[in-house]
Design brief:
The chain is of the alpha/beta class and about 325 residues long. The protein is about 45% helix and about 15% strand. Bound molecules: flavin mononucleotide.
Length: about 325
């Protein structure tokens, strides 16, 4: 069974080195119903690596998707099965990431050139799990940048059972000198291409991603497609998540946003629990530096927190003290 969730949705994008379990716990306090994604985990690592380290999460993080990287259907199926057993709500396959390391292992955006492999992977995963298997992709890669190519890719993968696609509305340039960072800003955004997919594949759930920075942007996209996925802006201004939660129907209508201060206090309690099992404060607090973004005193808060938390002996009281700034 590979059926997707039904209501319109807002999600926070998978981001390596960012959306780890501490970040997701923090985001969950800010927005109880946005969908969260892990950083990409390579299928092989899920199978052979330290699962406790790679897969562990707090139940409050749900709804939570495990993002996998890989191109071997059998390995992906094994990893997806393990993900389901660990309690994830969705398995997402990364077909959008342009980094070199990822190209050499044949995962990520380069697989847009091989729709049959992606389809076989989706099919293999769908056969062994009962949670939704979804795909995150770009609108094209290199010379494969016409709509017809994208439509063929989507059609092929959908035929294997994927009914939800998250589409980053810019192509990836792999045969160039663009860094992964440049590949997230230089190729232009073409939201119209994603909207067209929605029109031409009405049976699929299409989630749009790329460059969404304001509540108005999100609202406009939600009129056209089933969901919006937000990465960088949500990370740098996390309190914005409380506003995004308000857009989610029907839960948003009754939503009362928590204050920043109450979030910090809850994070101090979380840090207290985590530090007793060996986590360093900095690993938690680094995700919180943008909490006061745009507010008076934001810079002092950021400085106090980043300087205070690097000391290996720092405890959760640093978070509470930071409120004075
Ligand atoms: C630091 C960083 C790490 C990322 N890591 C991943 C990843 O692991 N998997 C993935 O599919 N996309 C990854 N992305 C891409 C984002 O998921 C998203 O597609 C991209 O940032 C565009 O959305 P935005 O404009 O809202 O940030 C990453 C982006 C950033 C900034």
């Amino acid at each position: 069974m590979i059926s997707p969730p039904v209501a319109k949705e807002i999600s926070i994008a998978p981001m390596m080195e960012r959306t780890d379990r501490h970040c997701r716990y923090f985001h969950r306090l800010l927005a109880p119903d946005v969908r969260l994604y892990t950083e990409m985990v390579v299928a092989q690592a899920v199978i052979k690596g330290d699962r406790q380290k790679l897969l562990r999460f707090d139940p409050v993080e749900s709804p939570l998707a495990l993002q996998l990287g890989g191109s071997d259907p059998a390995l992906l199926a094994k990893a997806a099965r393990i993900g389901e057993q660990w309690g994830y709500d969705e398995i997402n396959l990364n077909i959008g990431c342009p980094s070199d390391r990822v190209q050499s292992g044949r995962f990520g955006a380069c697989l847009m050139a091989e729709p049959e492999i992606v389809a076989a992977s989706v099919n293999a995963m769908g056969e062994v799990v009962s949670i939704p298997v979804t795909v995150k992709t770009r609108i094209g890669i290199d010379d494969h940048d016409e709509y017809e190519y994208l439509a063929h890719f989507i059609e092929t993968v959908a035929a294997a059972g994927c009914t939800m696609f998250i589409v980053h509305a810019r192509k990836a340039i792999l045969k160039g000198l663009l860094s992964p960072k440049e590949n997230r800003s230089i190729p232009p955004l073409h939201y119209d291409v994603v909207y067209r997919l929605r029109q031409e594949f009405p049976e699929l759930r299409i989630v749009i991603n790329g460059g969404v920075r304001t509540t108005l942007d999100a609202k406009l996209h939600l009129k056209e497609v089933e969901g919006v996925m937000i990465g960088r802006q949500a990370y740098s201004d996390p309190y914005w998540l409380t506003e995004l939660q308000g857009l989610l129907l029907p839960v948003g209508a009754k939503w009362k946003a928590p204050s920043r201060e109450s979030i910090v206090k809850q994070m101090a309690e979380y840090a207290g629990r985590e530090l007793s099992s060996g986590t360093r404060l900095h690993h938690i607090s680094r995700h919180m530096l943008g909490l006061y973004s745009g507010q008076p005193g934001a810079r002092a808060w950021r400085r106090f927190l980043s300087e205070g938390a690097v000391n290996p002996d720092s405890g959760p009281e640093i978070l509470l003290e930071s409120l004075r700034h």
